[in-house]
Design a protein that fits this description.
With 315 residues, this protein is an all-alpha fold. It has 13 helices and two strands, in the order H-H-H-H-H-H-E-H-H-H-H-H-E-H-H. The protein has a two-stranded antiparallel ribbon.
Length: 315
Amino acid sequence: MLVYIIFVVSLAVLIYGADVIINQSEKIALKFGISEYIIGATLVALGTSLPEMAASISASINGKPELSISNIVGSNILNIALVLGTVLIIAKGGVKPHRDFFEKDSSWALFPVLIFIAAILSGEISRFTGMLFIVLMGAYILFLLKYDKDTLEISDFDTQDANSQFNWVKTSLLLLAGFVMVVYGADYTVYSASKIAKSFGVSDWVVGVVLVALGTSMPELIVSITAAIKGKADMAIGNIIGSNMANITIALGAAAVANPIKIDFSKYTYDIATLLIATLMLVFITANKMYSKPAGISLLVLLAIFMEHTIKSLA
C-alpha cells in the first residue's frame, strides 16, 4: 500500500514542480524580453536533462559505457516519440507555435545526432570528443542568444507589469525548488513504479530498460505537456529540442570527459537507427508544419515499434 502512496505523491510533486518551472520561466522571459522558445531550449531544457546527465556520468565513472549510451539514446527517442507525440495529441486547441522551427532549429536537432553517430563509429568517445560535444552546446546557446530575433508574445500581462512584479530572489528560489521537485519527483515515481511492476511479476530487465528510460524523460514529458496545455507551444517544443541537444552534448560529453566511453556500434544499430529516424521525423514535421494529431499518432507508432523490439530483445 505504501508504494502506491509514494507513486501518487511523487507524481503530484513532479507535476507541481513542472508548473512552477513554466510560470517562473515565463517571468524571466518577460523580464528580459527573451522569447519563450529560448527559455525552453536552454534553461528549462538543461534543468529537465539533469536525470540523464546524472545517470550517464555515474555510469561512465562506474565503468558501464553501455548504460551511458543507452540512457541518452533511449531518452532522446522518448523525447521525440513520446513527449512530442503526446503534446501534438493533447494540446488544447492544437499546437500553433509562433516560431519557424524548420528554418531556425532543425539543424540543431539533427546535427548532434549525426556527429554522435560519427563519433561512436570509431568505437570510442574520447575525452577530446566529449569536450567538443560541450563546445557544440555552447555554440547552440550562442546562436540562440545572438542570432535569434523572435519577438516575445505577451499574453497574460505586459512587460511593465512583469518588471514591477519581478523579484530575482523569489524567482530563483522557486525555479530551483521546481527543478528539485521535478528531478526527485521523477526519481521516486520511477522507484515506486518499478516496485509496483515487480509485484505484478514483470522481469527486472524489462522494468529497468522501460521504466528507467521513461523516468529520465519524465521531466521533459511533464514540463512539455504542461507548457502545451498552457498554450506555450514554443516552450514545449523548445524543451524537446533543447533537451535532446543537452543529452548528447552536455550529458554524454561530460560522461566522456569523466571517463572515455568505449562502445561496440554493431550491438546497438537498431536503437541508434531509431534515434536517427525519430529525429528525421521531427525535422519533417517542422518542415511541413504538421503540428497535428495524426503526426502525434505517427510518433507514438514509432515508439510502440521501438518498445516492442526492446522487450523482445530481452526475452
